[in-house]
Amino acid sequence: MTRMTALSPMTLRLIVAAALCLTTLTGALAADPPVAPAAIAAPAKPAVAKADAKQIDQWVADLDHDDFQTREKATAKLIETGAPAVSAVEKAASSESFEQSSRAMRILSQMARSKTEADMLAANASLARLSKSDDESVAAQAKKAIDATKPKTPKQDPNNRTIQLPGGGKIQIQIQNGGIIQGIQGAPGAIVRGVTISKTNIN
User: Fold this and answer.
1) What confidence tens digit (pLDDT) does each residue in 10-33 have?
2) Rounded to 5 degrees, what angle do the CA atoms 113, 114, 117 make?
3) What are the tens digits of pLDDT across the range 79-89?
4) If you write DSSP's letter for every residue of the chain in order, what string do you get?
5) Tens-place pLDDT, residues 174-189
6) pTM for this one?
């Protein structure tokens, strides 16, 4: 018959405490299983509020407000709104109020250069319609706004002419007032000065 060794009171207390800790830990794990990283929802992005028709109409009306800051704020808000505001802004462009109509044209002009395709297309279409207005002033402003959206081409200096040579090279001629050539550069190292020519020769 096997004799069992008696345990000391201290040893018994340690065994009981360990058993209680193990039981508590097991119960906690069962109640709250670990969540996989993929299951953790990403924080929701705040929704961008879109201006409704009533708000857009108020901003359009504010383009003619007595307070300068109010007019500036309305202008910025309409540009920010983009395509949804184009119809109301187009109507304002024909307003009898110079302040309101000029600001409306400025808004459409800026929208027409927008990097957002929907805003750009809507504004350009609006300006095209306004350019055919029976009101000559409105049509002229719209055409000016359309021209402002076109890329600028550098103007040629009338006193500097570049001539392409048959062999593929080119020479540059600098002309002073009165048709006097100040210098010819581009031919193999040649610079000619003080040669007078007529305008028919330099056109």
Assistant:
1) 665 666 566 655 555 555 555 555
2) 115
3) 999 999 999 99
4) -PPPPPPPHHHHHHHHHHHHHHHHHHHHHHHSPPPPGGGSPPPPPPPPPPP-HHHHHHHHHHTT-SSHHHHHHHHHHHHHH-GGGHHHHHHHTT-S-HHHHHHHHHHHHHHHT-SSHHHHHHHHHHHHHHTT-SSHHHHHHHHHHHHHHSPP-PPPPTTEEEEE-TTS-EEEEEEETTTEEEEEESSTT----SEE--HHHH-
5) 666 655 555 555 555 4
6) 0.53
